Amino acid sequence: MPQIRFMTLSRFIIEQEKLHPEATGELSKLLHDLSLAAKVISLEVNKAGLADILGFTGDSNVHGEDVRKLDMFAHNMMFNAMDHGGHLCIMASEEEEDIIHIPAKFKVGKYVLLFDPLDGSSNIDANVSIGTIFSIFKRITPDGKPGTLKDCLQKGVRQVAAGYIVYGSSTIMVYSAGHGVHGFTLDPSFGEFLLSNESIRIPQKGKIYSINEGNYLYWHPGLKKYIKWLQEEDNDSERPYTSRYIGSMVADIHRNLLYGGIYMYPADSRNPNGKLRLMYECNPMSFIVEAAGGRASNGKQRILEIKPGTLHQRTPIFIGSEYDVRMVEEFMAKEEKTFSPGKKR
Q1: How far apart are CA 263 and CA 249, in angstroms?
Q2: What is the CATH number of the domain that holds 246?
Q3: 168 and 139 inside one domain
Q4: What pLDDT, on a 0 to 100 scale, did the predictor assign at position 1?
């Protein structure tokens, strides 16, 4: 009978810490607090249809979008789980217009947390997979003082850790602290995340592409040609690809991380800066995919090298297997002069 490796998230984090003598343990405790928040959010997501938590609050967020009750529950849970640990100096959430200060009664630490409390929330009422995404930086302002906006507006390459939680048929937490990408599945029988995917490596080339093809009319001409190329039959390059689009970024990228492929949310003539947020979605997911051997780009530039100007800055993103992202970059570069953002194609 094969031996089953029983490895909890907490134990795994501690063992990883031992491999790095310079570690202080603060980041490990921060990740542990995040896992507790994920467990509570998972419980609420799983019983959402039985509780008064589906539907809208009647308010709008900073992006002008209607706020769902479960969105706000997840946002509040993340804040309440993370504000008192003494590890953070500042937070920022996709649901809040401004930075979130640590309450004065609590100690401030050396880390910065940015998060999307519930990615894919438009799918909540339809019971489609959704998730939480988080990004962790070290502060750049002096220690011991409250954090500032400057601490939040750092390039993604300066992240010290990032991760996401998928709430689907099971709850899965995937994170990287720069030394590999590891996945843990929540066992609901005793409430622990158990190691299920150690040292995840994304295939160099996939056979899946994920994009909302309903926006085809408004795309860059190079992207249109790339999609048509993916759909052609060619045995040598293993085409055609298969189209798979869930509509929750975290779920689409999680699938492609395991199986290979490319996820695309491009700019178009109506949204020349794209729609996804650099700080809350694109930076952390790019950090994870690159740590697994993949690639993430805005079509011209590495996502992690983009210098943010605002908390809620948007960016196009092409992310996934190295080969697939390079191919879409090549197609778009060839047609760059023929694309005019803001004009309907």
Answers
A1: 8
A2: 3.40.190.80
A3: yes
A4: 43
Residue 111, domain member (yes or no)? yes
Structural domains counted in the chain:
2
Last residue of a domain, one of 142, 164, 197: 197
Residue 2: predicted pLDDT = 46
Q: Express each pLDDT in 106-128 by its tens digit.
A: 999 999 999 999 998 777 777 78
Contact 292, 202 (CB under 8 A): yes
| CB-based contact 164:257 (threshold 8 Å) | no
Q: For the chain, how far is it from start to end, CA to CA, in angstroms?
A: 61
Residue pointed to by tokens 């809040």: 96
Compute and round to an integer the Cα radius of gyration of the chain. 20
Nearest to 226 by CA among 299, 289, 304, 277: 299
Residue that the structure tokens 């298969």 belong to: 242
* CATH at residue 57: 3.30.540.10
DSSP symbols for 19-54: T-TT--SHHHHHHHHHHHHHHHHHHHHHTGGGTTTS
Out of 171, 197, 223, a domain closes at: 197
Question: How many residues does the structure list for the chain?
Answer: 345
Whether 105 is in a domain gets the answer yes
Q: 215 and 157 in one domain? A: no
Give the CA distances from residue 56 to residues 49, 53, 71, 308, in Å, rounded to whole numbers and listed in that order. 13, 8, 9, 30
Report pLDDT for 24: 76
Domain co-membership, 179 together with 87: yes
User: Computed from CA positions of residues 182, 188, 192, 195, in that sequence, does the dihedral angle turn out positive or negative?
Assistant: negative
126's tokens: 């339809």
Type of residue numbered 38: A
Name the residue range of residue 136's domain.
9-197
Q: pTM to 2 decimals? A: 0.91
Could you say which residues of the chain have pLDDT below 70?
Answer: 1-5, 21-22, 48-68, 337-345
Cis, bond preceding 240 (omega within 30 deg of 0): yes
Residue 344 counted as domain residue: no
For position 5, what pLDDT does the model report?
65
Cβ-contact 243, 209 below 8 angstroms: yes
What pLDDT is attached to residue 124? 73
Residue 16: its pLDDT value, please?
A: 86
